[in-house]
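User: Some background: our group keeps a shared notebook of sequences we're curious about, and every so often someone picks one and asks for a predicted structure to add to the entry. Today it's my turn. The entry only has the sequence so far, pasted here. Could you supply the structure so I can complete it?
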Amino acid sequence: MTTSQETSGLSWLHRGTEEIFPSQPGSESPRDNIERLLATADRPLRVKLGVDPTGSDLHLGHSIPVRKLRAFQDAGHTAVLIIGDFTARIGDPTGKSEVRKQLTDEQVKQNAQTYLDQVRPILDFDTPGRLEIRYNSEWLSGLDLSKTLELLSTMTVGQMLAKEGFSLRYEQGSPIFLHEFFYPLMQGYDSVAVEADVELGGTDQKFNIAVGRDLQRHFGTAKTQFGLLLPILIGTDGVQKMSKSLNNYVGLSEDALSMYSKLEKTPDSLVKQYFELLTDRALDTMPDNPREAQKLLAIDVVTQYHGEAAAIQAQKDAATLTGGGKSAAAEAVPEFSLADIEFPAKLFYILGASGLCKSGGEGRRQIQGGAVRLDGDRVSDVNTAFENPVDLSGRVLQVGKKRFVRLIN
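Assistant: Of course. Here's the predicted structure to add to the notebook entry:
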């Protein structure tokens, strides 16, 4: 995976890294600390990344720390991927304005398997000694009351309330449940259990990673872990962080055409960051032409998850569906005239009228199920409506992977 000139030397470590902490006396920068650790270690480092299977889908934002974990693997270190099957029952309260819904054991188990399937294209699962997959129920489910009390005694309520999400909820008078206080402690105890040298996470995870260091010190671990923080990816809307709920995401399990169609529309302001965080391409080889840069980004990312042949085919298919040219392939896409549609019109009604769905009711269900796309972008709101046929003219409406129509005025 990490084969470009950009990953030579220690650039693989620095690329896309927001912060490495703590800073030690005499160090000019936090990076010096971990470089010294890499230079003096007499064994492969144990690099921890924890993921809680609280949902079924991962997106490109989730891939950033996983890609960094792969970079450590390629440098000869041991990736410790912790599936938080126990902590998922609580869910990380970081950034949440209200308590998470608790999941059943079966939901957690199913989600965990989908997570592993989705990160398989990124991580090295095959080289002996390069990957440990651990489930934190191994050690957390066996904690007795005395050990739990010991964990609780390592942190004050004031320290917990200093955590951004908790402090905001407290100020707003929103409920904070006692079991949520356990989350940073349990996540931190994972670092004790696996003897982590380095922990990876987004910039919003600094508090949790620091708790891991404190607990390692409390329980007498010889060396405490370093924290390596990575940026939170901005979504395809160019404004808010990538999130499925905001429909500004690219899912790791999406088909090649859907991934390509979204990525080739990446806002110009984000293209360089996407190249840096989502690919191994040397940044000085990016095309100067913004449109060519978007296309190359889409090809690079889709290749990682679907292979080069599928990425090239996706590029051809995207051009066919949205280019409006007169190639034989483009002409093969059936057209649907909006002339007889009364506007304003709900999209689910157009789905039924166009024949893509048997009825408007089925159109609603397909939208709810995430199967409907407009010019490659998923439509998630069943109430999506358009005031004028001009807003839709020339655009490609899609249901599933094989049903398309080009809308014409």
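Suggested note for the entry: The CA atoms of residues 260 and 298 lie 5 Å apart. The radius of gyration is 24 Å.
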